Amino acid sequence: MTVTAATGEHWSSRAAFLLAAIGSAVGLGNLWRFPAEAGSNGGGAFILVYVLCVVLIGLPILLSEVVIGREGSQSAVGSARGLALQSGRTPAWSALAWVGMIGAYMILTFYSVIAGWVIYYIWLFGGDFLSALAAGNPGAGAFANMDIDTIRGQLDSLFASPLRLIALHGLFMAITAYFVARGIKSGIEIAANFLMPLFFLLFIGITVYAIVTGDFEQAAKFLFSFDLEKALSGPVMLSALGQAFFSLSLGSALMITYGAYASRDVNLGNTSLIIAAADTSVALIAGLAIFPIVFAVGMAPDAGPTLMFQTLPAAFHSMPGGSLIGLLFFILVLCAALTSSVALLEAPTAFAIDRMRIARVPAAIVLAVTAFAVGCLSALSFNTMATVYPLDFIPIFAGQNIFGVMDGVSGKILLPLSGLLTALFIGWAADRRIVDADTGLSPTMFVLWRFLVAWLCPLALAAILIFGLRG
Ligand code: TRP
Hints:
Helix content: over 70%
Order of helices and strands: HHHHHHHHHHHHHHHHHHH
Largest sheet: none
Shape: globular
Bound molecules: tryptophan
Mean pLDDT: 93
Strand content: under 5%
Radius of gyration: 22 Å
């Protein structure tokens, strides 16, 4: 059977597919969230559980998603529906993709807000670097004329301006829409081909800088010492699994969408392994880039979400060449965020093209504008709407503003639900003859994969859902 993607597009090579998929996986989740979570969940304990979640649950689901995509060769919803029909099952299995796509779209709305802050920090550090250059002292620390509290306060002064928050969010969304509107080969691939190498270059450079000039010993002790009791506690395991899902872009229709653009000769088993390994390495190395700097200036590792936007900039104050390093660091974060947001927008755009017959350019624009509008509510959650709690009557969302609700509904409910349905579909419902032919796994790995998808993944994902919903 010859199948072409209904969007009519394909990756130009296996490398292009890999780079785009890694670009989607590596993002704010690795750089902003992972170090923050590891920092507040006890370092090594969290990391140990995280890696197990990636190997035992993330990787099997990742392979399942790309298999669904390549078999269906349409948008995520069309692919899941197609494979269900080919397997003689109800097309209602496409729910797995619907749930994921809605999750991806919700993530896009707030992802762009955070990426907007990143742009702001590029601007701050850029200005500071230029004035350090003008003063003939580029080797000094960042923000030489400010004290630590003023540097930390930069985030709050950004939050104090709704207009700035919204403009930065809009700017980032516009750039995202531009790449998606240009299509797979001349938009998404170009973004990945240019931004990912730049990302890796900066990433290696900053990690080396952090290890050489920072307190590597203490960072390594913090990251790699593990406390088994803490690691095996319920909340740590659940947040590690949720983080693994988010970081690998799973349960959000994306790996199905990108899998659909892959040609027949790509070995999906190997490809999934490379994607998961790259994403996990970036998360772990991000810890080695950030914590030595934080420890070098004696700051606390457990600041949570403000680690990157308050602790780190303050730490650059006393690091040599701090303003240049800070500037490069935030450029790196922006590269990673952009290849992810492009993927977040591509999943619903492919759906609009394939199931609603809308042309790519208007589809991408309308979806981006709507996501921008909804995202403004998340942007204002750091300002005038900080204490608007839309789902206050639901216990797990009590006291969460719109940003928190968007993050919570997608991360705690939609992504794991989509993952659960995917595991049940591939593990139990899809036609084995079709799926088996497509994985490229050796016989032993194949048996292991089937076992994990049919048994362990559904149980673990059901656990996140149940405990997530009960708070
Ligand atoms: N993996 C991305 C990150 O780590 C976030 C993400 C979740 C994502 N689901 C996605 C990105 C779907 C693209 C598509 O930042």
